[in-house]
Amino acid sequence: MRIPRSMRWVPEWARSAIIYHIYPLGFLDAPQRNPGYGAPVHRLRGVHKWLDHIAGLGVTTIQFGPVFESHSHGYNTIDFFQIDRRLGDLLSFRELVDAIHGRGMRVILDGVFNHSGRGFFAFRDVVQHGRESRFADWFKINWEGQSPLGDPFDYEGWNGFHSLPLLNLSNPETRSHLFDVARYWIKEIHVDGWRLDVAHELPVDFLRDLRRAIKQANPESLMFGEMVHGDYRNWIAPDLCDCGTDYQLYAVLWRAFNEGSFENLFEQLQREYDLEMGAYRDLTLVNFLGNHDVTRILSQLDRPEHIYPAMMLLMMLPGIPAIYYGDELGLTGHKDDGDQSLRGPMPQEPVKSDIYTALAQLGRLRHRLNAVTHGRFVPLQATDKLLAMLYEIRDEDVIVLINQSEDHLPITLDLSRQGISDGTTFEDVLNSGWYTVEEQTLTVDPVWRLWGRILVRR
Questions:
Q1: Which of 69, 110, 192, 197 does the annotation list as catalytic?
Q2: Beta strand 61-64 with 19-22: parallel, antiparallel or unpaired?
């Protein structure tokens, strides 16, 4: 069998990962503004009581949103070498990393290397010394202008926000500082990788040099990029990011349920993963139903009962599934109501829910099925209500069937192109049942309503 080229550069542990994405300032109900003074408040210690809950989902990697000292939401960084005082300090974070590693899970940090906050030491020096600042070239400054915040100069801010001064990533000193940051957290705090904010806006030569720094610190560390649009091959490659977010698939994923049809999703899967022509057939992408920037999935779906087939889809797609914290408990939040509505606190104590139970079952199965994490992916067929996908690797074939209807539905699969011979038997390892290929077709009746079946060749 042809081994996808992505397997030649993505760390093995990452290819099999299930990510749990925490936005810590929200998860731990921290104040929205950093006072800038006072002793650290050790809210990070509140994550410890959730680690068994998280591990129970089959999670292997915890992705932390911004943890560095910042003015407010974490993306306006003040100090890349300090934990935000609203969360704790270096000691409490190191204790948390050790506890996560002790449970066999890994840690990824959010690296905001495209811009800083106005309190960042280099920008403060520019405000104080103007053209004479030795850090003047760390930013993109127009000395003939005046900023809307009262500075006697103007400068570029991310997305037009002057609270987020863009870093000049063509400046060797700026790069050196950020590379030191990347190495420090890997070598000294033992984190396992970086999620790069707005990676699609970072210069390719910067990504290449950053990767070199990260892999020198630990060859098995992960470099994971946030990519919203464009051709992902521009940022994922053996000398660039290991993997990245698949916003293109996300845009189709939840609509498949609200539109009541899997056909557009099926076409997107073909565009991405067709064995010969798929645009991303040899890349590793991170799939999600929610994150800190988009409406939570339970609020996004027109019918809340679709959360179950949606979660099944998330956990059984090719690539790496990422669970946004609280989605397993049914947290809600609309983007139109502001980012804070997407970043609410977790309950005071860990609880279980029906969604959690379903996700945990799917997580356990994903780890058992080598074909799903390492095999060749084939979108088989789709109707309005039913989606069929196949994974193949060596002696294991796995067929995933997902039903978004409120009715149990039968499906007949043509397997003549897949080389699966008559008499081959499949066991449903998600529910129960046995099915046999006859005349190069597999008939499954029923496929469970608002759920599905996962069939493994025996």
A1: 197
A2: parallel
Judge whether residue 17 has pLDDT over 60: yes
Q: Which residue has the tokens 């080598």?
A: 370
The per-residue pLDDT for 276 is: 86
Q: Which one is catalytic: 110, 192, 209, 226? A: 226
395 and 320 together in one domain: no
> Over the stretch 439-449, which tens digit does the pLDDT of each residue have?
999 999 999 99
- Given 368, 403, 434, which residue is the final one in a domain? 368
Strand segments (E) across 275-429 = 284-288, 320-324, 376-382, 386-393, 396-403, 409-414, 425-428
Residue 447 belongs to a domain: yes
192 is a catalytic site residue: no
What is the pLDDT, as a whole number, of residue 2?
45
Domain harbouring 295, CATH code: 3.20.20.80
Pair (84, 207) in one structural domain: yes
Query: Residue 422 burial by CB count (10 A; 0-12/13-18/19+): exposed, middle or buried?
Result: exposed
DSSP conformation class of 240: S
- The answer on 444 and 420 residing in a single domain is yes
> Does the active-site annotation cover 197?
yes
Separation of alpha carbons 51 and 59, rounded Å = 10
Q: In terms of residue numbers, what domain contains 228?
A: 5-114+169-368
